[in-house]
Amino acid sequence: MRYLMKVTTAVMIFLLPISTGNVQASVADSTIPALVSIESDKTSLAPGEKITFSVGIEDESDLDYVYLKVNPIHRSILGTSVQLKFDAATEKYVGSYTVPTSAFNEQWYVSFVGARDVHGNYMHLEDGGIVINNWESPITFKIFDGNDTVGPTFEQKGSLTLNVTGPFDFTKNLVIYDDVDTDVEKSVKVTHNIPEKTVGTFTVNYEAKDFTGNLSTFSQDVTIKDIESPKLYNVQNRTIFAGDAFYALEGIQATDNFEGDVSNAVKYIGYVDTSKAGDYSITYRVSDKAGNTINQTAKITVVAKESVTITGTEDEFLLLNSTFDPLAGVKVMDSSNQDVTANLSVESSVETDVAGRYSVIYTFDQGGYEPLTVYRQITVAPYNSPRIEGLQDLYLFEGEALTMPTNIKAYNVMGLQIDGVQMKTDRPVKDAGDYAVTYSVKDHYGYSYEETKKLTVLAKEASFSDVPVSHRYFKEIQFMKEMGIINGYPDKTFNPTASISRQHVASLIYRSGVALKPIREKIAFVDVPESHPYYTEIMALYQAGIIDGVNGMFNPKNSLTRAQLAKILVNAYKLELQPLNLMTFTDTDNHWAKDYINILSSNGITTGAQGRFNPNEQVSRMHYATFMYRIVQ
Q1: Which region is the signal sequence (predicted)?
Q2: pLDDT at res. 212
Q3: What is the residue-wise DSSP string for 482-497?
């Protein structure tokens, strides 16, 4: 192959007179001479004949010399230099080469052109030298004495291995030339007996004939094997959203030139965590049976999905035969505050002409967003008036203000709590006696409800000599007396600070009217015969599973601790924990009755003292009366 341009540059500084007074400017000529054209007057000549070359060169300065070299194409010799002189008529550099009379038939070419200007800038163009700038000589000529007896030459450049599926270029490793016939390659004929798609080593035969009829033959062993790697398809960078499914081999195909479809042989290395945004790489690999392998890598980018919010899907109550549009007032907004409601799908079973509860399902499942499903309940019903819960007869002492009980709540037909409960008495509350209290409420549909309860104003008079009106627990003790739950002693005393006995606890609970359902048979306590004044009360609480005895005895006159009483009250009145109202105590964390004490506290039955409950202290009669008052109220 003939190509090269090698250039050497020298920089010379010379002075040119410039019209600036006595100042002279230094100008550097660094321009390399440039080859413009090269021609020859012949393409074929006999030994002893002359060939003339004409070379056009441009340069900013005069040239010192110009020359070229001629060489045989297929022989490595130093070649012959030809000096070129400037021809004023053609303005080109001209020189001749005379072929020696001893020359033999052969193809030659101009292998080199060189020039240097007066400032040392050097042009060096060499066909087949070190590549600095590509140049391929356009000048070839042949020396022919008219008598050609030498056939074409086959020059082998290494061994030849071809792919089993082709293409079969059997001359790929051969240089075929003739000393005078420049088109001899066109005459080459190749013969072989290689079966189709068969690997192995086979002999291939060649023959070539020049234009004078000289014939040459050549043979070589050619190896046929599968040297082509399979091809992978659809391996490409992809972007998916977090949470989406990713199957590494989905859509990946592979084919082999010899084996056909090898998609099942594709393997991959890498991992994509679809739950975590980031860049991941998957490398696919497939090999054929000959060991030819291809690897391709794809980048998989996982991006986080954008979240959305669905509003306007609150549960709703509809009157029978009203209208309902499941999309009315419903909006879907993404985290960029863009309205994407158009992509919301709705599944509704609502029939407004049939009473019942229906569901509406809103589903947003759009590429690039976190999927979201919202359920909505629609109640269709004929109208029912609102209701008020927690109403009961009230008791006040003279001088106490009448206020709305905190446990009274109103609900509409949907069961949703509503405000606006009003309370009105039949006359101003002043003296002791009975009054009527009417409670009323109106919902947003304009429907109302009212109910009347009795208010009893008790005279503020002490029934017990040791519990005057000024006593801290007068109200609680006197109320229990008015309700007939406690009676005190025959001497008109209550003895408020004394410890309350087990028999009196049983009696007071029984008198409060609490439902006591038997869950076990009676038992005969040695110390509670049927003649005992509190036999009925004690046995009722025992059968209800609220109190027990020990070793066949009830110990009716024994006192109770505050912790023991907590358990009895919780079980008797079936109290439950109210977590939102719970107030804990510092001395009950590890106590066996902690859960019972917490239930009393959360129901407002005990408040303790200075953050303590004192669970192991005995219960006084006044404190027990207070507990009972708060329960029955």
Answers
A1: 1-25
A2: 87
A3: HTTS----TTS---TT
